[in-house]
């Protein structure tokens, strides 16, 4: 087994559970491992830390998959997937859910989502192998998944830009027999069209499922804005929970087309307006229609509930400042449009933007908007995307439920 020795003092983060070794933390590599091969990682003084895959093409040089001396063979892949599945059966509704969440399930770079087509009673898996180590085990992974789940089909969504950082090409397609990838899933009792081959991510944002359900107490007769709506998950939930009207805004025409189909499907076509627009422009225009660019304190506002669920503005620490301004702008504009006592559900899926920075941004926005904020609830990604302590990257989605006065 080849060996990667760390520089002095570089083992602390890893001993506290972090599964990555960066290129600049390595003193030397012995044994000339091939790209994607298994290596033992040891501290400067020779203490064994774990075993992982090495990838010379990536800044994340080694990804640990175990703290023991085992290999990621067929049996271990199967065991990890079975444990991942058992966890889901305890914490979530499993018809449609995330089955494997990469490092947080001890499978670095492997994502598996399970989708049940509620109309045809079929179950499909969507798989992403985002690291070289996982890519090299693709066949065993697909076999293990078939053995464990007996899916009606598997689709690979490896058209994800992060793969190029691992030196992998972008591709997507069926693993095995083709099937109809336009399906209808059930979530919280509602129906949603999902496009497994062409939709964003693996087709649907499963990480927001619990947060969509969490807006229920604030929807009765509410005027709702679902900004960055994608296929309208929050808007449709709001209408099901008694909202008077919902507006969904997204920049993607495919997403907006699907919002309309989802409104039909759930019987809310008359109460939902779907707008293809840039949310920044949309909020700006709505705001400037009101006097002095905002709603005076005490007026009825334009909305009672606004959901802001933008894409990750901060892809890394270096873009954090620009991202902060982006988040602040949309939060400030949204606050100005809310009735007193209105609810702002403000999300950030940028891992680099941590919770305290995110709250600070909300307060900055409130001060500029001349409003006060109370936090009703602090929420996060759904439980099928568990947060692994010691690995901060696994806590990426923050969702603040805020009351704005
Ligand atoms: N709330 C959604 C997920 C949102 S993902 C759900 O519950 O499923 C972020 C969405 O923002 C994507 O659909 C993307 O198309 C959209 N988007 C990105 N930049 C945008 C912009 N400037 N204005 C409007 N939509 C944007």
Give a written overview of the molecule.
The structure is a single chain. By secondary structure, the protein is of the alpha/beta class. It is 27% helix and 30% strand. The chain contains 10 helices and 20 strands. The strands form 4 sheets. The chain has a 7-stranded mixed beta sheet, sandwiched between helices. The chain has a 6-stranded mixed beta sheet with strand order 2-6-5-4-1-3, with no helix packed on it. Helix 2 packs across helix 4 and helix 9 packs across helix 10. The chain is globular and about 70 Å long. About 2% of the residues have low confidence. Bound molecules: S-adenosyl-L-homocysteine. S-adenosyl-L-homocysteine (SAH) binds next to helix 6, strand 15 and helix 8.
Number of helices: 10
Largest sheet, spatial ordering of strands: 16-15-14-17-18-20-19
Q: What's the total number of strands?
A: 20
Distance between the termini: 62 Å
Residues in helices, as a percent range: 25-40%
Largest sheet properties: 7 strands, mixed
- Rg, nearest Å: 23 Å
Enumerate the distinct ligands.
S-adenosyl-L-homocysteine
Give the averaged pLDDT, no decimals: 95
Strand content: 25-35%
Name the poorly predicted regions.
292-298
Q: What order do the SSEs take from the amino end to the carboxyl end, as H and E?
A: EHEEEEEHEEEHHEEEEHEHEHEHEHEHEE
């Amino acid at each position: 087994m080849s060996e990667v020795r760390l520089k002095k003092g570089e083992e602390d983060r890893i001993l506290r559970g972090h599964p990555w070794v960066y290129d600049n933390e390595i003193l030397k590599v012995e044994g000339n491992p091939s790209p994607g091969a298994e290596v033992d990682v040891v501290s400067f003084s020779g203490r064994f830390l774990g075993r992982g895959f090495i990838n010379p093409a990536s800044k994340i040089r080694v990804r640990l998959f175990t703290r023991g001396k085992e290999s990621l063979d067929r049996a271990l892949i199967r065991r990890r997937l079975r444990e991942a599945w058992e966890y889901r059966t305890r914490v979530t509704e499993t018809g449609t859910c995330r089955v494997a969440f990469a490092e947080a399930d001890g499978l670095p770079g492997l994502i598996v989502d399970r989708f049940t087509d509620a109309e045809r009673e079929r179950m499909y898996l969507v798989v992403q192998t985002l690291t070289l180590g996982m890519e090299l085990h693709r066949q065993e992974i697909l076999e293990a998944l078939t053995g464990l789940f007996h899916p009606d089909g598997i689709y690979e969504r490896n058209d994800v830009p992060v793969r190029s950082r691992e030196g992998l090409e972008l591709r997507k397609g069926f693993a095995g027999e083709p099937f109809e990838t336009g399906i209808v899933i059930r979530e919280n009792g509602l129906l949603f069209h999902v496009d497994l081959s062409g939709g964003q991510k693996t087709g649907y944002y499963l990480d927001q499922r619990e947060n969509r359900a969490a807006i229920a107490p604030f929807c009765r007769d509410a005027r709702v804005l679902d900004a960055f709506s994608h296929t309208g998950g929050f808007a449709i939930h709001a209408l099901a929970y008694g909202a008077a009207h919902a507006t969904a805004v997204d920049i993607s025409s495919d997403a907006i087309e699907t919002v309309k189909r989802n409104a039909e499907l759930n019987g809310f076509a008359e109460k939902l307006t779907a707008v293809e627009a840039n949310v920044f422009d949309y909020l700006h225009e709505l705001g400037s229609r009101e006097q002095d660019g905002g709603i005076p304190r005490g007026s009825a506002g334009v909305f009672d509930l606004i959901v802001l669920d933008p894409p990750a503005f901060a892809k890394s620490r270096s873009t954090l400042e620009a991202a902060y301004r982006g988040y602040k702008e949309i939060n400030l504009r949204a606050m100005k449009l809310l009735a007193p006592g209105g609810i702002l559900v403000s999300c950030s899926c940028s891992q680099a933007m941590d919770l305290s920075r995110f709250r600070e941004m909300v307060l900055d926005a409130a001060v500029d908007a001349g409003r006060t904020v109370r936090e009703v609830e602090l929420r996060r990604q759904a439980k099928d995307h568990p947060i692994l302590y010691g690995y901060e990257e696994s806590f990426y989605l923050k969702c603040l439920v805020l009351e704005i006065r």
